[in-house]
Amino acid sequence: MAVGRHIAFVNAPTVGEVYPTLPIVAELVRRGHRVSYATVEARAEAVAATGARVVAYTSSLPGESDRGLTRPDRADYITAVREGFLGEARATFPQLAPYFRDDRPELVVYGMQSLAGRLVALREGLPAVQFQSFLAANEHWSIARHLGLTVTPRPGLPDHQAQLDGYVAGEGFDPEAVRAFQPVAQLLLYPRFMQYRAETFGPDRHFTGPCTGPRPFQERWSPAEPNRPVVLVSLGTVYNRLPGFYRTCVEAFTGSGWQLVLAVGERTDPAELGPVPGDVTVAASVPQLDVLAHAAVFVTHAGMGGIQEAIRAGVPMLTLAQTPEQEVNAQRAAELGAAVPLDPASLTAAGLRSAVERLAADRGVREAVAGLQAEILTCGGAPLAADVVESALA
Hints:
CATH architecture of the largest domain: 3-Layer(aba) Sandwich
Largest sheet: 7 strands, parallel
Order of helices and strands: EHHEHEHEHEHHHEEEHEEHEHEHEHHH
Number of domains: 2
CATH superfamily of the largest domain: Glycogen Phosphorylase B
Strand content: 5-15%
Distance between the termini: 8 Å
Helix content: 25-40%
Strand order of the largest sheet: 3-2-1-4-5-6-7
C-alpha cells in the first residue's frame, strides 16, 4: 500500500453529497494520506474533523437558508439541475484550478456533478476516481427513462452538451477530450440492491454501500423518554421549505404517545409552526444517526443517504419524494419492502399518524428491513472506497 500521497476531493457542497464522503476521507487520512477537500465554508467544520485540509471556495448554488429556492417543475427538473451544476463549474473551476496547480495532488476524487473536479484532473494530467450518491445510469437504465421524463433545453438555449462544450472550450480544453475523459474507477456510494439493472454495470463500478462514521461536529441525541416510540421526520436540506407539512406533523403527534423529532431545515422558521408541545422536538437539523438508532419510523424525502441510514438502523420508512431521483429511490425502497410512499395531495394529520402506526406494527415490513439491514452491514463502506482510491493511486 502506498502511503503519504496527496489526494484532492472536489465535490458539490450539499450535505447529501459531502457527508457520505467524510468517512472515506477519514479512512484515507488514517492510512497516512494527505487529503485536500474543496468545499464551502458551511461544510468546513465537518470536513476538517476528518483530518483533511479544507480548500474553501464560494459556490454559485443556493445556500441552505435561502428561502427563495423553489423546486423546478418535474418535467424541467433534470434540465434545471444540469444548468445549475454547469453554472457551479463556471464559478468554482477558476477558484480551484490555481490552488491545485500550486499544490498539485496525485489523484483527484470528484463527485459526478462536479465538472470542476474533472477539469482539474484533465488540466493537471492526473488520474481520477468519480463517485456518486444517486442511482447510476448507463445504456440500459437511467432515472429519466425510468420515469419517462424528456430532457429538453430551455427555449432559446442550446442543449446541455452544447453549453458544456462552449464553456470548456473557453477554458482552453478540447471538448472532445472532456467528453472522452474516463476516471480510473467509479464509486457508487450505496448498496447494489438499490441499483436498477445492477447486473449491467461493469467491474469499474464499485457499490460501496453506506459510508458512515462518527460525526463529531454534531451534538449527540437521546430520547427524553426512552420508553416512548420515536418518529423522525426530515425532508433533507434542499427542497424542504414546507411549513404546512410540518404543522401537519405537529398536529398528528401532539398528545399521541409518540415522540416526534422534526428536522425542518434552515429555510423554515420554527415559529411558523405555531405552538409546539413538549413531546415534539423541532430543529433545523438533528444528528440523524443518533435519532435513527432510537426511531420506530422514519418519514423521509427518500434521499439515498437517509434511506441507507434507515436500513442500516433497521427503521422502516414512509417516503415523500421531492425530486425525480428521490422518486426512484422511494420506488426501489418500496419494491424491496422497506418503505411505503405517502400521497402529499391527500395527507392529513390523522392520515399521517395512522400511516406511522400501521407501519410500526407491520411485521412484513420489519422483516424486510431486517433482511436488508443484514445485507447492508456486509457492504464494504468507507474501507472499500478507500481501497479503490488507493488502487487508482497505484
